[in-house]
């Protein structure tokens, strides 16, 4: 028994005519008649008596009619409720951020999302890329905000923006005496490194390797805030995201672009390639893109 067959049956019953029912349903009359016949065959009972000038319901048809109307009404209500919930922003959204992105956008993204979708429930996880990918694959996360590349056939990425990396050095104890620094000069200064357990640390190390640099690493830390604090007191310089420079209100660190080569990272929204992206997920990704300081 098909839903469209019930729709055609109700139309014939209410109009008293196969031709008028076909016009109402925007279908050719022979096709409508064929579907009614299939429904009668499945039920094992005729639903209409075909009279010369009209059709009338049989006992089986009169029994089926109110049930068919209720079924179609329930289906309409289901669709209406789903649309209402989507429009009102009802639902649950689980998102993940890597630690080198979360501080710069997460608080504002949460605030704006909560204001725009007060009926939604948002949960946030901050973790390394590997854990975010694993939780996306397991269905524990709907969206992961991370940096590219991610190499997994079941992870779909949507690039949000490209963010340059800047040279950070202390204002009070600046080891750089010029307004600019060439990339080939990076290995002349002590360097504060972010651990390669973070994708940002790995990206910086890969960039320096491609430039044939041998960094003089004096501190290797797992926290971007520690990198900034070490730079601030003059222990060395580092390569940091521009978002850090834009959010730094301390006025204790100089941020300079590199000459000769521009290191950068691509910020992306990662989702499971085989899962349907929800309305809330799409809106959250749009908010992150709009609120990211870079």
Provide a short characterization of the protein structure:
The chain is built from ten helices and 13 strands.
How many individual β-strands? 13
Tell me what portion of residues adopts beta-strand conformation: 15-25%
Largest sheet: 7 strands, mixed
Which oligomerization state do the chains in this entry correspond to?
A: single chain
Question: What can you see in these coordinates?
Answer:
The chain has 294 residues and is α/β, with parallel strands linked by helices. It is built from 10 helices and 13 strands. The strands form 4 sheets. Strands 3, 4, 5, 6, 10, 11 and 13 form a 7-stranded mixed beta sheet that branches. A two-stranded antiparallel ribbon has the order 1-2. Strands 7-12 form a two-stranded parallel sheet. Helix 5 (102-116) links the parallel strand 3 and strand 4. Helix 1 (3-15) crosses helix 2 (18-25). It is rod-shaped. The mean pLDDT is 91.
Give me the secondary-structure topology:
Elements: H1 3-15, H2 18-25, H3 29-43, E1 48-50, E2 55-57, H4 59-88, E3 91-97, H5 102-116, E4 120-126, H6 129-137, E5 143-147, E6 155-170, E7 181-182, E8 190-194, H7 199-210, E9 216-221, H8 224-232, E10 238-241, H9 242-247, E11 253-256, E12 258-259, E13 264-272, H10 279-291
Parallel strand pairs: 3-4, 3-5, 7-12, 8-9
Antiparallel strand pairs: 1-2, 5-13, 6-10, 6-11, 6-13
Helix pairs in contact: 1-2, 1-3, 1-4, 5-10
């Amino acid at each position: 028994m098909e839903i469209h067959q019930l729709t055609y049956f109700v139309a014939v019953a209410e109009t008293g005519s196969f031709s008028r029912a076909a016009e109402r349903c925007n279908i050719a009359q022979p096709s409508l008649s064929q579907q009614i016949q299939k429904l009668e065959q499945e039920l094992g009972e005729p639903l209409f008596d075909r009279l010369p000038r009209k059709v009338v319901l049989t006992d089986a048809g009169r029994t089926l009619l109110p049930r068919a109307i209720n079924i179609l009404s329930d289906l309409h209500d289901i669709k209406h409720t789903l649309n209402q919930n989507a429009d009102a922003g009802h639902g649950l959204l689980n998102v993940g951020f890597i630690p080198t992105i979360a501080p710069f956008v997460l608080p504002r993204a949460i605030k704006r999302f909560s204001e725009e979708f007060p009926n939604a429930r948002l949960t946030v996880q901050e973790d390394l890329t590997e854990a975010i990918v694993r939780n996306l694959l397991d269905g524990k996360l709907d969206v992961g905000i991370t940096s590219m590349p991610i190499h997994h056939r079941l992870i779909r990425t949507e690039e949000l923006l490209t963010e340059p990396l800047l040279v950070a050095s202390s204002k009070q104890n600046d080891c750089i005496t010029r307004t600019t620094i060439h990339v080939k000069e990076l290995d002349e200064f002590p360097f504060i490194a972010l651990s390669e357990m973070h994708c940002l640390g790995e990206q910086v190390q890969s960039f320096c390797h491609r430039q044939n640099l041998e960094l003089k690493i004096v501190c290797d830390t797992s926290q971007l805030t520690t990198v900034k604090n070490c730079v601030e007191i003059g222990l060395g310089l580092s390569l940091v995201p521009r978002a850090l420079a834009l959010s730094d209100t301390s006025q204790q660190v100089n941020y300079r672009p590199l000459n000769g080569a521009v290191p950068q990272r691509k910020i992306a929204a990662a989702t499971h390639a085989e899962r349907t992206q929800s309305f809330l997920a799409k809106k959250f990704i749009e908010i992150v893109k709009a609120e990211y300081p870079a």
